[in-house]
Request: fold
Amino acid sequence: MKKDKLLFKDEKAIVKEVVDDFKRRAEARKSFDLIWQINMNFLMGNQYCNIGYGGQIEEADRQFFWQEREVYNHIAPIYDVRFAKLTKIKPDINIIPATNDERDKQTAKVSKKIYKSLKNKLEIENKINQGIKWSEVCGTVFYKIGWNVNLGQVVGINDEGQKIKSGEVELSVVSPFEIYPDSSVCENLRECQSLIHAKAYTTAQIKSMYGIDVKGDKINTFSLDNVSVGVGGLGFNGTVPKIIETTKDDSAIVIERYCRPNAQYPNGRLTIVAGDKLVFDGELPYECGEDGTRDFPFVRQTSIEEPGCFWGTSVIERLVPVQRAFNAVKNRKHEFINRLSLGVLSVEDGSVDLDNLEDEGLCPGKVLVYRQGANEPKYLQSEAIPTGLSDEETNLLDEFNKISGVNDLLSTSTISSNISGNALELLISQDETRLNASIESIKFATKEIARKILKLYKQYALFPRIAKIIGENGQIEMFYFSSSDISSDDIELENQTDGSQTMAQRRDMLFSLLDKGILYDESGNLSNRMKCKILEMLGLGIWENAQDIRELHIKRAGNENLKMLDGVSCKVSEIDDNELHVNEHIAFMLGEDYERAKTKNANLEKIFLEHIRAHKKNMEG
Reply:
């Protein structure tokens, strides 16, 4: 990146202003940082930590040597269940043309092929799953979609002998620890006027990214470590993982500040500061907003939306008080059990050797010597475990399920063995309802990622480039495209399937439709295309999805339409399905593309009509 001369004025003043703005936003966001750290610690099992008066995470010590401090982690399995259910969401992107015009249909097909070819290349599903992990722990996660000029196919060599590449879209998952909005009361990215993305890099990484040398320093960061934090039972300590603050040597913070278009900067502003040096100060580079406007290259995803707040809420945050209470109840219960099993001795002063008694207790076969005339040591009578502890334990377990919104119905004994299938399906549906907010956020994020990817290709794919997808019957289909083949302004992105439905549910629905005859044509038969679609929906794989001959004829007729549109006459083949070809050619002649081309080529109608007559002649013969 180069410094924009229109915006670049005083480098030191700009660097100071950006750094000061970053520090102000970091201080304003500190309370959320602490909540996220608490959530991460509780998930990993370090559950005897709290926020101290100094605004730091502090560990609570044992009050007595005999105090039980075991961790009974119910947050981790709840997180696992939610993550497993949410990762089932595999939204399929369906791109809808703006009109029924053949040109719009073609651009929609090309756009869908482009996204399909990039889905595996960019590992979009894996990135979404990684984002779900962050959103479930911290409540919010971000995806960054940018253009990397160092990726893609080699298109030439510059004067210095370096390879010039075509560039490619780059997708990365950004944790909420790296994002700093101008205000935390904005409910979404659209309401933010500016956004900072800050991340620590080593000086070598900064040199590789921007080609500049910056002064390295020690940067505070978080890491995972196994530390003894005083958990465990009577007489032993346990070790649990915890999030600790460490320093990263020879590093510097790279601050990227994005500002929306305004009166002063009509195309927005991007300022990048690495350490104490200005790397870039210019317009927002990406035209990924509505109607081709410049916008932030970020997509936001939340677990639970919080009204009037930029940051979402995690279920873990709601479960922390319940988990603290549950640990306390279980440990107090075990302390009662320790007293019942070990007992509490009553000893007269000076009657026995206390040191020996403390070390060995009243073990079986022990010869106890006590002073003549004194009372022998005896156990104090212990009370039974209070029933209130067991009741509270049961209530807290029920609270875990109510607050988290997830429950493994198959493991509960409350489900009757003679419950009907419809009733069980209704219970499962109600159990999934609490996940709908998270599911909708995942779907929205997937749509926005696809939208921004296509808009970046619309902006940067100026020269034809080749891509490949897995076509029918497992064959690899290669195709060329450029920015003119993408019409991002008239593309709608939809989710074709409900991700919360299981494969078994979709199969039952499909068989029900078959039984009712809804999928059959007027003559009561299943078309080849419908058979292929049914096999695909049943999840039987690509090998059964043989190419439909009608689909191949439709594709051949479409290619003939494009050739004749350029004034090239096409011969009719004996293997053509004449009736199908005639219908496809007539439908194309009724479209706007044909009407526009006819005004430029007077012989176009003659070419099409002669071709159609040749098909009709074959039909008569």
Q: What stands out?
A: The chain has 17 helices and 19 strands. The two ends are 67 Å apart (CA to CA). The chain has a mean pLDDT of 79. The first helix runs from residue 11 to 28.
